[in-house]
TrEMBL record:
<feature type="region of interest" description="Disordered">
    <location>
        <begin position="1"/>
        <end position="41"/>
    </location>
</feature>
<feature type="compositionally biased region" description="Low complexity">
    <location>
        <begin position="160"/>
        <end position="173"/>
    </location>
</feature>
<feature type="compositionally biased region" description="Polar residues">
    <location>
        <begin position="1"/>
        <end position="27"/>
    </location>
</feature>
<feature type="region of interest" description="Disordered">
    <location>
        <begin position="160"/>
        <end position="182"/>
    </location>
</feature>
<protein>
    <recommendedName>
        <fullName>Late embryogenesis abundant protein</fullName>
    </recommendedName>
</protein>
<feature type="compositionally biased region" description="Basic and acidic residues">
    <location>
        <begin position="63"/>
        <end position="75"/>
    </location>
</feature>
<feature type="region of interest" description="Disordered">
    <location>
        <begin position="92"/>
        <end position="112"/>
    </location>
</feature>
<feature type="compositionally biased region" description="Low complexity">
    <location>
        <begin position="92"/>
        <end position="105"/>
    </location>
</feature>
<feature type="region of interest" description="Disordered">
    <location>
        <begin position="53"/>
        <end position="80"/>
    </location>
</feature>
């Protein structure tokens, strides 16, 4: 009986040892599988991140191109308007008396308008921005003062334009008694 017990114990130990080896092998395979899954997931995250960066860069480039094209278009349109105003001023100067002091001022304004329109046509918005940046670096106080004056002028023009369009604040001047429409 003792031999049977020893044989039975030996088989149990061998079965336990085999189970232990199989469990260890299974755990190793699970670790390898998990490592592969993590590696694949990491690769996928990198690929998605790279694609997102590429698309964001393409969108930013497209937006930059569109903004530049629109700015150039508006600059050309502004140059055309400025040239038309300068032509109108030239016409006024031509029809004025030769000895009129206003004629020389209007002629100077027309010439400067033509030069400004030519400048915008040749340099475009990029040249204008470059020149403004250089001026701001050389004379920051004058640049800031000019920006304040320009902002004030644009605000006044916008306010005057909205009143002329009838899209003002909706308030109107009070009517005096006896001066209203009948």
């Amino acid at each position: 009986m003792s031999e049977m017990a020893n044989e039975s114990t030996g088989r149990a130990q061998q079965a336990g040892q085999t189970a232990k080896q199989e469990a260890s092998a299974t755990a190793g395979q699970a670790r390898e599988g998990a490592s592969q899954v993590v590696g694949t997931a990491t690769d996928q995250v990198r690929a998605v991140t790279g694609e997102a960066r590429a698309q964001a860069g393409a969108m930013a480039g497209d937006l930059r191109t569109r903004v530049t094209e629109e700015a150039e278009s508006q600059t050309r349109r502004g140059a055309q308007v400025m040239r038309q105003w300068a032509d109108d001023l030239s016409g006024l100067a031509d029809s004025a008396d030769a000895d009129s002091p206003a004629r020389s001022l209007v002629t100077q304004a027309a010439d400067r308008g033509h030069r400004a329109a030519d400048y915008l046509d040749t340099r475009g918005v990029g040249g204008l921005v470059d020149d403004l940046q250089h001026f701001a670096r050389r004379r920051p106080g004058a640049f800031l003062g000019g920006a304040v004056v320009a902002g004030f002028a644009v605000g006044r023009l916008a306010k005057a334009g909205s009143k002329a369009d009838g899209s003002g604040s909706g308030r109107s001047a009070p009517e005096l008694p006896g001066h209203g429409e009948a």
